[in-house]
Amino acid sequence: MTATVVGYARVSSAGQSLDIQLDKLNAYGCTRVFAEKRSGRQVDSRPELQACLQFLREGDTLVISRLDRMARSILDLAKIADQLKKKGVALKVLDQALDTGTSEGRLMFSLLASFAEFENDIRAERQADGIAKAKEKGVSFGRKRALTAEQCQRIKVLREEEKFSVPQLAERFNVGVATVYRALQESD
User: Fold this and answer.
1) CB contact at 8 A, 92 and 66
2) CB-count exposure of residue 153 (10 Å: 0-12, 13-18, 19+)
3) End-to-end CA distance of the chain
4) Domains of the chain: which residue ranges?
5) pTM of the predicted model, to two decimals?
6) Which amino acids are annotated catalytic?
7) Cα(94)–Cα(27) distance, rounded to whole angstroms?
């Protein structure tokens, strides 16, 4: 059985392009490439990565363009690295010139994984700070409320005094029944 050079490419959203990663993987000589457009947060929620890991056999090499394309946390990266090691699969990271087939490569892999997680944590902290600052300035997040406070009060009056049913109220205000129930709870 001959060793296979397998590539894996990932971008976080549908609007992003896989082209650059795919070009690098093909130029390296990957004979099979798994690619997907999904968030990198959870390894389990990426079917192409799971299929790739299942496909790999002893002696194969998994090639990725950057370390963060495969995992966003040290825990996920460590799990994947352990799985690859048990299968006898080497990992080659093109942009970081990393090859876990060597002891130096394994050391660098561990260090880069730590830095990648640190960078992700810093980004999350900055994002949380930005959200908090925006909220202080009165910026609201999420969907626009389906009903105004006045409409919620009117729903309560119609329900209690006029004996409207919840489906009737939902139809009258052009919202779902769950929204009517929430409006009734909020006004209590």
Assistant:
1) no
2) middle
3) 71
4) 5-118, 149-186
5) 0.59
6) 12
7) 11
**Nearest-angstrom CA–CA distance, 172 and 21:** 52
**Partners of 33 in the beta sheet?**
7
pLDDT recorded at residue 96: 82
Q: Report the phi/psi class of residue 174: left, alpha or beta, with left for phi > 0 and alpha for psi in -120 to 50.
A: left
Q: Which residues of the chain have a pLDDT value below 70?
A: 1, 40-43, 187-188
Q: How much is the pLDDT for 29?
A: 94
Beta pairing class for 61-64 and 98-99: unpaired
* Residue 90 phi, psi dihedral angles, 5° rounding: -90, 150
CB hemisphere CA count around 56 (13 angstroms): 29
Q: What is the pLDDT of residue 104?
A: 86
pLDDT at res. 57: 95
User: Which class does domain 5-118 fall in?
Assistant: alpha beta
